[in-house]
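Next up, a chain.

===
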Amino acid sequence: MYLALKHIHLTTIAITILLFLLRGFWMMIESGQLQKKWCKIVPHINDTLLLVSAIGLMMTLQQYPFVHHWLTAKLLGLIAYIVLGTIALKRGKTKSVRIIAFFASLAVLGYIAGVAINHNPMSWLS
């Protein structure tokens, strides 16, 4: 069960990143592709699978946010990524704000990856 959850989690992470990069590119070139129905639905389905697999891993490994500091850091990073991603792709008032939020989102993803790999809130600095 653990390996299946881990593979689902890692696969959905890769899909999330690829879709976010694609949508960010489309935002920068002001493509109409962002308004396609699939572009509004598929990322949410994938992110739901990502979250479900994360909860499954958490329960399987019995490691929980607010108990294990690295998971708390990942959770807070996820919240920051969601807020910045929403600004980047939807809520940013100007293109400049959306672009800055997009790159900030990518930086947060890099932080989350470092936390996940090193199991340390210091991310890549640990």
